[in-house]
């Protein structure tokens, strides 16, 4: 189990049905932590004290029933995902679940394991989208003031939010664009494959040491664009990983060494190397541009990591792009 598993709260006042659901959840792939309660009131108190990411509740319970329970839960925690279970194929109840409380899914008991897996995968993807939308709304004004382009992406690489500089890049750059279905892509098929390979690597493995989470265009030579990722959430198998990209627009002047040194409180000699790395150069290329050896450049970067509190080259690139934008 990871450090931040998806928390699932299961509620059913029938102990036998609750145990069936608990066993089904043990077969589900993913980074989940499930708590099962047979008391709707106890479940409500638990959710209000520490909200679950996903709530799976039986429909027909006493005081309150499933619809009443989820209505109270969602009023307090609208971003959580709510799933209703029922032993009856009750169309009227299913419609009420969808229309009255906007339940994410309505499933019949006993739940098929494969269907439960698909439902939870979809629930995690929806959970990430809701969180990304909330972040975009909370930080909208601050993000809009940046000169760097910021794009929030869904797990399937669709654009959830783009600030004004990012919208201009998508519209006019000839490098990145948004397809008719909202998917982020590059201007050519080959470059789109390279971009999507980069995004998939982030989803499956997360940020790695070095510059593995920095995308540059073109792949070789002076970079016209540099995109540094920000991981948002990723489950055990990575399929639900949502993230954002920070794009540097080449029409903007390169950040000066003085601006970088001032923004990061580092030495001018260190800023020379950082400037190259922030432009998408490898450590070797940045060292050559700064006129120092590769070992000296690596020493400078280690010092900068300590001074700024970052631990990866990609984090340093983001920091430069955001603080000097």
Series of H and E elements: EHEHEHEHEHHEEHEEHEEEHHHHH
Please provide the count of β strands: 12
Average pLDDT level: 78
Main sheet? Answer: 5 strands, parallel
Order the strands across the largest sheet as they lie in space. Answer: 2-1-3-4-5
Q: In the CATH hierarchy, what is the class of the largest domain?
A: Alpha Beta
- The CATH topology of the largest domain is Rossmann fold
Residue runs with pLDDT of under 50 for 5 or more positions: 206-212, 232-241
The CATH architecture of the largest domain: 3-Layer(aba) Sandwich
Q: How many structural domains?
A: 3
Q: Residue share in helices?
A: 40-55%
Straight-line distance between termini: 38 Å
The computed structural class is alpha/beta
Question: Could you give me the name of the CATH homologous superfamily of the largest domain?
Answer: Response regulator
Report Rg: 24 Å
Shape: elongated
Strand content: 15-25%
Count of helical regions: 13
Topology overview:
Elements: E1 6-11, H1 15-26, E2 32-37, H2 40-49, E3 54-58, H3 66-76, E4 81-86, H4 91-101, E5 105-108, H5 113-138, H6 140-145, E6 149-153, E7 159-162, H7 164-172, E8 176-178, E9 184-186, H8 189-205, E10 214-217, E11 225-233, E12 242-247, H9 257-264, H10 268-278, H11 283-290, H12 294-308, H13 313-323
Parallel strand pairs: 1-2, 1-3, 3-4, 4-5
Antiparallel strand pairs: 6-7, 6-12, 8-9, 10-11, 11-12
Helix pairs in contact: 2-3, 3-4, 9-10, 10-11, 10-12, 10-13, 11-12
Protein name: Regulatory protein, luxR family
Domain Response regulatory: 7-124
Modified residues (4-aspartylphosphate): 58
């Amino acid at each position: 189990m990871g450090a931040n598993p998806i928390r699932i709260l299961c509620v059913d006042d029938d102990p036998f049905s609750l145990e069936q659901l608990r066993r089904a959840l043990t077969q589900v792939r993913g980074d989940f932590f499930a708590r099962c309660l047979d008391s709707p009131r106890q479940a409500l108190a638990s959710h209000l004290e520490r909200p679950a990411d996903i709530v799976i509740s039986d429909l027909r319970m006493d005081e309150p029933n499933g619809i009443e329970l989820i209505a109270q839960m969602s009023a307090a925690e609208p971003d959580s995902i709510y799933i209703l279970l029922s032993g009856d194929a009750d169309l009227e109840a299913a419609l009420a679940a969808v229309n009255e409380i906007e339940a994410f899914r309505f499933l019949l008991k006993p739940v098929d394991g494969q269907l439960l897996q698909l439902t939870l995968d979809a629930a995690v993807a929806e959970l990430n989208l809701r969180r990304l939308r909330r972040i975009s709304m909370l930080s909208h004004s601050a993000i809009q003031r940046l000169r760097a382009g910021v794009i929030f992406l869904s797990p399937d690489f669709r654009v959830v939010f783009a600030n004004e500089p990012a919208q201009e890049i998508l519209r006019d750059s000839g490098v990145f664009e948004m397809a008719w279905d909202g998917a982020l892509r590059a201007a050519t098929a080959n470059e789109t494959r390279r971009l999507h390979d980069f995004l998939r690597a982030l989803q499956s493995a997360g940020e790695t040491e070095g510059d593995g989470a920095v995308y540059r265009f073109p792949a070789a030579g002076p970079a016209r664009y540099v995109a540094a990722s920000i991981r948002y959430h990723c489950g055990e198998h990575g399929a639900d990983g949502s993230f954002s990209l920070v794009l540097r627009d080449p029409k903007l002047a390169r950040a000066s060494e003085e601006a970088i040194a001032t923004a990061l409180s580092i030495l001018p000699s260190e800023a020379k190397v950082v400037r190259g790395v922030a432009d998408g150069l490898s450590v070797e290329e940045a060292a050559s541009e700064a006129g120092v050896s590769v070992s000296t450049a690596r020493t400078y970067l280690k010092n900068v990591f300590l001074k700024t509190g970052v631990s990866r080259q990609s984090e340093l690139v983001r920091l430069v792009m955001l603080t000097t934008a």
